[in-house]
Amino acid sequence: MAKPAIGRTQMTRRGVLVAAAGTLFTAACGADESNSPGPTTRGSEELIIGASLELTGPGAAHGVLQERALRITVDTLNEEGVPVGNLRRRIKMIYRDNGSRPETAAQQATELVGKEGVHALMGGIMAETSLEMLKVAQTEQVPFISLGSADGLVTPLAQRTYIYKLQPNAEDIARMMADLASGQNLRKLGVLYSGGAYGKAGIAALRKALGGALVADAQLPATGSNFNAAAQRVVDAKPDAIIIWAQAPDTGAAAQAVRGRSFGDQLIFDPGAVADDTLAGDNLNAVDKAYAIHPASLAGMSLTDTTMADLDRRDFIYRYIQKHGAFRGFAPYSSDAVRLIANAARLGRSVDRGRVRVYLENLITEGIAGSYDFQPIKHGGMTADSLAVFQVNGSAWIRIS
């Protein structure tokens, strides 16, 4: 396995990205307008963005947090508006609850494009809802930023030219898990993973990163099912630690199932575990001292933060605490999504869908959740050096590296 990651400094490339961002923004402004295919939406002094989010159903544990972050950021940006050409446009955000149903997300995407004339789309916390939305976005040539986690959302690139994603790539998370396990002398690993595109990407990345250290794996049944049988199959292999690659609320339920099978050793989560539900009720005892790989933004802010991105993050967290009482949980990808769209419109001096797409794929920037390095040959996700290791201590996620 790879060498230990605990204590390793991973911010060098991130600093380079931030320093280079201004240069690349300037270069992007000189792009040839002939490279901007796609229809121009009807005239407006607004930048219109449609969001289909999981505000109810299994994805609500993360969807509600994304809606909160999105509303805060839209309000912040609208205080001065977004300079686009010779206009300062307000962002008109249209929210829809897809109920965690892929077919509903697809229908909403169609209506947002056809009836509302949106300049861009975002949403799809779950991989399945994102996969349905991106079909509409690609067909209608509307920029779409997925809030979901599955590497297949942006590949093959030739069929995903209007599609971007923000969550970390599975291979980067898996590599950090392997480093963590090696550093903690955890030689045998078991894996419980969710079904669908999200879980498949995770287990594929883990098999590659862990190699012979992976001694057992099992797919979890659908949300709300009994996880005991899957947990027992992995526990029977007597691993030193069990990785749970799933999103809340499945993470807490899986942890309880593992502990119920008399497994007292280490648990390791991917970013999907980091939500209030995982630390609630009976879950808390099951996940105490568990590790998680997650964007470093989870640690909050520091008074020594001085870059523009740091100051934006501090302002966002302050506003979040003022409105919701505490800042914790899933990284605010939706906040970054709306900022990226606004930046692309600003740099392109237009809300034309094709121009927004062109400028999105040349953005290198540091957001609230982490850093992004989009290129014509790469449409996601977050850079690996945006990630950190956290551990559950009491009822909080504490950064340890």
Automatic annotation (TrEMBL):
Residues 49-393 form the Leucine-binding protein domain. Coiled coil: none annotated. It comes from the Bacteria. PROSITE patterns: PROKAR_LIPOPROTEIN. It holds the Pfam family Peripla_BP_6. Transmembrane segments: none annotated. The keyword Signal applies. Residues 1-30 form the signal peptide. Keywords: Signal. The keyword Transferase does not apply. Belongs to the leucine-binding protein family. PANTHER family: LEUCINE-SPECIFIC-BINDING PROTEIN, PERIPLASMIC BINDING PROTEIN OF ABC TRANSPORTER FOR NATURAL AMINO ACIDS. This is Branched-chain amino acid ABC transporter.
